[in-house]
Amino acid sequence: MRPDGRIGGLVQSLSEHLVRNVEEHLLEGARRDFLQRGFTTLPFLAPDEVKSAVADEIESLVEAHGVRRGMSFKETGHTPRQMRNVRHREISEHGTVIPEVYAAPDLLAALTRVAGEPVLPCPYEPERYVITELEQSGDTHGWHWDDYSFALVWVVACPPAEHGGFVQCVPRTYWNKQDPQLHRQFIAQPIHSFELRPGDLYLMRTDTTLHRVYPLSRGRRLIINMGYASQADLHKPISHETMDGLWHGSREEQAGQTV
Asked: Where are the alpha helices (H) located in the chain, listed in sequence order?
């Protein structure tokens, strides 16, 4: 889908903001946090008009194409996924803002500076972007790793921390899909917790950072996860059991299945 003039203007606004307004000390501070904890918040990365356009498109897509899912996966110790989401396929077919923002060269350049290595579009398209909504008590995106190295998450809605919905992560961990040993990971490394607010963005090192969204008790959490690859990801074998199991299948299969 070719972007219209408004979309081109938004991408240009994002690029100008990144070049003119994002100061070096902000990127350096984010880089230190990222390298230490595998996580950093980047609320300064996009101007308000781009955040609003992304949020409006997310709201529209989740209303029209969101599918309720409840699953668990042996590759992550049977941790639960209870959520509504919109897959890459529907976002690509019906979205305009998100695909253009995802691939914006100046955004990739800024993420590369924070990560300390090239941040590249994900070669496996289903992991490029996915919308996730937690809307019911108990909804969670349980403990897991991702197949690819980086995730940039745009937060549209999130409750106060006392109602759940905040991020927890364990950096410098290794995903053995045959034997994930989650409890050993918790003992070996500290668990960091991060409260988020609407309009926040955060970058996570998702292949070596065990992470989850704390179960919701009230309110609503709505985000888009934009997944990116490292150079190393392009040259190693990657299977996609949890991604394929979570996002694929019919609407009937997507409700209540356990893998």
From this structure: 5-20, 24-37, 48-65, 88-94, 97-102, 105-115, 182-188, 241-247
Question: Tokens 């995730």 sit at which residue?
Answer: 151
Cβ pair 66, 247 in contact under 8 A: no
Query: pLDDT tens digit string along 49-98?
Result: 999 999 999 999 999 999 999 998 888 899 999 999 999 999 999 999 99
Q: Which long-range contacts (CB under 8 A, 24 or more apart) does 176-183 make?
A: 177/75, 177/239, 177/241, 180/75, 180/76, 180/77, 181/77, 182/76, 182/77, 182/79, 182/143, 182/210
If one counts every other C-beta atom within 10 angstroms of the C-beta of residue 135, the result is 17
Q: Please report how the helices 5-20 and 105-115 are oriented relative to each other, as an axis angle in degrees rounded to 10.
A: 30
Please indicate, yes or no, whether the overall pTM of this predicted structure exceeds 0.85: yes
- Ordered by where they begin, the domains of the chain are 5-247 (2.60.120.620)
CB distance 52 to 132 below 8 Å: no
Q: Which residue has the tokens 């060269």?
A: 105
**Around Cβ 183, how many Cβ atoms within 10 Å?**
9
Q: What's the gap between Cα 80 and its chain centre?
A: 17
